[in-house]
Amino acid sequence: MSTPTTPSTASASPSPAAASPALAAPDLETLRTASDVLGLDGLLSEDELALRAKVRAFVDERIRPNIKDWYEDAVFPVEIVRELGDLSVLGMHLEGYGCPGRSAVEYGIAAMELEAGDSGLRTFVSVQGSLAMTAIHKWGSEEQKNRYLPGMARGELIGCFGLTEPTAGSDPSSMSTFAVHDGDGWVLSGAKRWIGLASIADVAVIWAQTDDGVRGFLVPTDTPGFSAVPIEPKLSMRASIQCDVFLADVRVPDSALLPGAKGLRGPFSCLNEARYGILWGSMGAARDSYEEALKYSLERLQFDKPLAAYQITQEKLVNMLLEISKGVLLAIHTGRLKDAGTLEPVQISVGKLNNVREAIAICRDARAILGGNGITLDYSPLRHANNLESVRTYEGTDEVHTLILGQHITGISAFR
Fold first, then answer.
1. Which of the residues 165, 291, 358, 395 is marked catalytic?
2. Catalytic status, residue 395
3. Taking the model in full, what pTM does it have?
C-alpha cells in the first residue's frame, strides 16, 4: 500500500480500494440492521416487509448488475417494463381494472427500493402509475379505464403525461397548448417538454387549454401530428427517457376527452401522487449511497487503518444516517396519513422538499468518502446525486414547495 502525503491525494487515487481480509466489511444485512437505530422496521407490517424484500430482490437481480451500462450508454431498458408489471408495481396504488390495489405505504416502500437501484427506473413507475394511470383512473370514463388500465398495469401498454411546456414549467396555468372543439372531435396544437416516456409511449395524457378551461385528452401516440423527440444529451436521469412533444393539429374524437377533469385540479391531483412517491424514492437513493460509503469506509485503508476509524468519516456517516432515519420516518407517517384518507397536499410538499434536498446532500457526502473512486460508475453515490438534481426539479422545484409551505403558514401567497 502506498502512503500518500495528504488525505486528499490518498482518497483521490483511482486504484481499487485496498482492503485487508481482517477489515472486510460485514455483509449488507448486518450493516442495515446496525443502521436501523430508530427501529423503523418495527413500524412496518409483515406484509409490508415481505413486499420490500420482493422488490429489493428484483432490484438486486435486474437493476444493480446492469445500471452502470444503462446509465453510461443512456439506455432505458424497455425490456424491463413487462417485468415491472409482473412485479405488480405499475399503478400499484390503484383499485380495480387489473391494478394491484396496494396501500400507499406499500407503494412508497416499492418506490424507495426501486430508487435505491436508480431514479430513472423509479421514475418510469411514477410516470406510468402515478401520472398517466392515475389520470385515467381518477378522471376517465369507464370505457377509457377498461381500454387502457389493465394493459398498463401489466406493462403491455406505456403511458406518458404531457403537462410541462417549454415556457410553462412551474406555472402550468400559462400553458399555450390549445384544444379546439371541431365537429365530433378536438384538434390539439402546441408543444410539451420534459415528458417522460413519450417516445416509447402508446398513449399520452395531454393537458390543454380550451374555451372551457384546462382539459385532459388521451392521445394515441400514433395519431397523425403527434411526435416525440428524446432530449439528449443529459447529465442526469441517463437511464430514463424525457422528450420534447410536438402537437401539430392532432385530431382526436370526443371520446378522447377525460370527462371528469376540468381545470388544473385534474393534473395537480396526479402530480401529488407522483410527489408522494418521490418523498419515499429519494430516501432509497440516499440509503444506497450511505450503504456504499459505509461499506467502502470499512474496507479502504488510509494511513494504516480504515477510513471508518477516523472521526471526520464517522461524523459524515452519522449525519447521513440521521437524515435518512428522519426522512424514512417522515415517509412512513405521510403514507399512514394517505392510507387513512387524511393527507393534505401541503404535507406532501413537506416530504418532497425535505427528503429530496437531504438526499442530494447525503449522496454528495457519500461521494466524498469514496474519494476519487467515487466519480466512477463503479460506485452509485454520484450517479444518484446527478439523478436527484432532476428529481429535485420535477413535480415542483424546491422553490415551488417552499412557497406552498410559506403560503400555508402565513396565509399569504408569494407566487406572483
1. 395
2. yes
3. 0.91
